Amino acid sequence: MNDPLPARLAGISKSYGSTAALDALDLDVRPGETLALLGPNGAGKTTALRVLLGLIKPDAGTATLFGADPRRYQSRRRAGAMLQTGGVPPTATVRELIELFSTYYPQPLAVAESLERAGVAAIANRRFGDLSGGQQQRTLFALAICGNPHLLVLDEPTNNLDIEARRLLWQAIKTFVAGGRSVLIATHDLTEAERLGDRVAVLRAGRIVDDGSVSELIARSAAPTFEGAVLALAGLAPELEEVA
Question: In the chain, what are the domains?
């Protein structure tokens, strides 16, 4: 029997008071692909990821990780996540954090490999609270991949990074993908979505308004560029960012 999809959201709705964050959202992540969930701030990207990871309960619909409830331990340990908020102890060193997080998984990467892949080997003995923003982001990425997950979930992974730090993290993500794993990236960065996404799902007001490869989105819109395609298909480009 074929392994189920790494991730699926089916008919997911979620409201906070009178504000609808997600509106009957359908989204699949296929084996071996990088899916970029592209949308402006407030579109519902973070809520979608938190539902998918079992961190919040939807008002309606079903979320599954590898065909099972994402709140189950057996499902969660096949996924690694890098979210915008986290309770990482500031006094622990980078190495100590990776050693700790690795114990949560049945077949983690070697600590040295996690450090190397994330580009943090040179700062392994420094305390997390003493790191720069870019170094902290790369450390959080190391924590997301240290369990050797089949699915990697990243929420705005390069937000507030300078161009060089952004490119280093992009390369680390590509290296992870080369191992045949699946990645879901929530981003408002047009360049990030275009460069990393095998497929791009454009999210607006809690609903997917278009979904396809970059070339497919451009072809459907008859626009000459990806930015133009997003504008023509979804009217989102002025609210998004393009970073060289």
Answer: 29-58+150-244 (3.40.50.300)
